[in-house]
Amino acid sequence: MSRFVDRVVIHVRAGDGGNGCASIHREKFKPLGGPDGGNGGRGGSVVLVVDPGVHTLLDFHFRPHIKAASGKQGQGSNKDGAAGSDLEIKVPDGTVVLDEHGRLLADLVGAGARFEAAGGGRGGLGNAALVSRARKAPGFALLGEKGETRDLTLELKTVADVGLIGFPSAGKSALVSVISAAKPKIADYPFTTLAPNLGVVSAGDNTFTTADVPGLIPGASAGRGLGLDFLRHIERCAVLVHIVDCATAEPGRDPLSDIEAIEAELAAYTPTMQGDSVLGDLVDRPRAVVLNKIDVPEAREMAEFVRDDIVAERGWPVFLVSTVSREGLRPLVFALAEMVTAYRAAQPEPVARRPVIRPIRAGETGFSVEPDGDGGFVVRGSRPERWVHQTNFDNDEAVGYLGDRLARLGVEDELLRLGATPGCAVTIGEMTFDWEPATPAGVDVTLSGRGTDSRLERTERVGAAERKIARRQRREQSDEA
């Protein structure tokens, strides 16, 4: 049996960037070939794309974990690694993307609409790109950045021009079946409709879509019945139509009380797209009332009795119809087409969103240093944390390069200003260091072997020069004696 899923939580992970390559060019008759390590490839991104052929989020219900391909590692001879291909995920038209805190990230409407759910990590630089005046032949390369990982909520809001609302078994599905080619399930028990049904209606030269929303009951906006799960499908409807069952035999129900109960639930519901720039707020949408089942004599009398009261109290157009005898359907269809056209024409044209670029203001360092309470310090900032992820800590020269970058950024000076002492713990990202202020202080690096840094050398072994000096001193002392 097919299922309609309109809300899922997905876990997306973009591809990691490829590592850079540390290579030295070696070829016969070409001494001192120099570094020729290529850069790593960029990781693939996860992109959501609207596809008109997809109508539900069911696939994500069974496969919520999505991962893009990672970039390849760079190679020698200045060969850059291949970039990971972007993973395009097809979603239905009308999908809304929310983050972990419920904030709106994207509203995907229209075929081909795209949203980058997770950005791929950048590839690490090879040693050919790290050559500088101080480092003629770097013996290290940068690691690739990790791909972005996010937990996103996808909500499907049916894209329809007319939304049919009302109590269960009011005849909404039957109305959709007679004014369009849709064939929804119709039965005489409440909550027959468990998923919205879309139908395309033709009215002369005009064509519009209508959505049959599952029945609403008092308390639907608070989670009772099926209302909370399906109220979201009326957010994109330009016109809301009350379908009222005039032949109901339930005690305490009449057309006026049914309309008031549904309007109370609409007022209590807080839509995600509140203040939508295309359709306006939900409370401002035009309404119409359909008094249904007038093929029953008692229902016709009730409809004729309350019609004038609804017009006088609400000011909405009222239509008396019967889905069995097809009475009143043609005037209803043409009136709804006019209401949809007029309302959409009155709305302002949607303005395409432009990308917003927020440069760092002058004087901002892009990092912060805070005491952690145990005599150590925590450095926070996008650049220091990214640099730590790019560093291979098994290579002393790479660690020294990291120290130089942090020193130029101003981390050393800020630690000294806050009273940091040699040997205290400094945490950046997921790494904790024993801080030595002399380690990264020199910008001009003393040349040493590839993959090493003289500032990080810690050895108790006495060198040959020191032994020669000590031997000379002992001889001088013996001659004097």
Automatic annotation (TrEMBL):
Binding-site list for Mg(2+): S173, T193
All copies of domain OBG-type G, residue ranges: 160-341
Cellular component, GO, one term: cytoplasm
Start-end of Basic and acidic residues biased regions: 452-468
Domain OCT: 359-437
NCBIfam families in the record: Obg_CgtA, Obg_CgtA_exten, PRK12296.1, PRK12297.1, PRK12299.1
Quaternary organization: Monomer.
Name used for this protein in its record: GTPase Obg
GN (gene name): obg
